[in-house]
């Protein structure tokens, strides 16, 4: 539980904000039930990989054959990206924003913001989206919906062995026939064209922030795995925007930069507990 001064400041800053920028890292989705480090959930979804000694969804560097790797990707993405049930934590965050002018920047590639009441064109996802695939070359700047590719993989997937039985089911680039891969930022081959319009909208929105009312930056669950994606940019937004304030919500890394002084508030709580402090 936050101290009374922290709780009162948090509520006061939110009440006084005309604009809200949400900066969200992996900690938000973990708090919402999508924890990549959850070994029990990994065992339930991917028993064959669990038997091999693997324990989490952080598999980008795992030495697996392509048929097992695509079995993993198909199950993982189907679970985390294409669920249809509303997520209570993200819904509560949308209630928090209310009718205020807002934007979102997130390192998460699960589309949970857009799936839970946030307008898709207000959400910038610079790390990509599991909802799309790209050519690994890449031979084209086009990307494609991952859903039909994953359906083909899952139809050929054997849960007991963790393998995709039909090699023809493995996703290929429709243009050159080369290997396809989720459209997420893992190297210089990442195709970011689909996300640039949202980035430009956010930049223009921030350019107007100094004259368009008080800005509150609410950063949630952004630690030090990729601090250059969310954590440091949120600090920089507050530095260069007159009167802007930063609320950093993080159970482990809630420290705020000293140079922001009284314009930054440290909330050492998880996302659910922090929203509870606001009565949501």
Description:
The protein has 280 residues and is α/β, with parallel strands linked by helices. The protein folds into two domains: 1-33 and 87-126 and 192-280, 3-Layer(aba) Sandwich (Rossmann fold); 36-85 and 129-191, no CATH class. It has helices at residues 4-15, 26-31, 39-45, 47-51, 66-81, 88-97, 146-155, 196-207, 231-240, 271-277; strands at 19-24, 101-106, 123-124, 128-135, 144-145, 157-158, 163-164, 180-184, 215-220, 245-249, 264-267. A six-stranded parallel sheet has the order 3-2-1-9-10-11, sandwiched between helices. Strands 5-4-8 form a three-stranded antiparallel sheet. Strand 4 (128-135) and strand 5 form a beta hairpin. Helix 5 packs across helix 7 (146-155). The radius of gyration is 20 Å and the shape is globular.
Topology record:
Blueprint: H1 4-15, E1 19-24, H2 26-31, H3 39-45, H4 47-51, H5 66-81, H6 88-97, E2 101-106, E3 123-124, E4 128-135, E5 144-145, H7 146-155, E6 157-158, E7 163-164, E8 180-184, H8 196-207, E9 215-220, H9 231-240, E10 245-249, E11 264-267, H10 271-277
Parallel strand pairs: 1-2, 1-9, 2-3, 9-10, 10-11
Antiparallel strand pairs: 4-5, 4-8, 6-7
Helix pairs in contact: 5-7
Q: Provide the β-strand percentage band.
A: 15-25%
**C-alpha-based Rg, rounded:** 20 Å
Number of domains: 2
As for the CATH topology of the largest domain, it is: Rossmann fold
Summarize it.
The chain has 280 residues and is α/β, with parallel strands linked by helices.
Characteristics:
280 residues, alpha/beta, Rossmann fold, 2 domains, six-stranded parallel sheet, three-stranded antiparallel sheet, 10 helices, NAD, Deacetylase sirtuin-type domain-containing protein, Ssirtuin_cat_dom, DHS-like_NAD/FAD-binding_dom
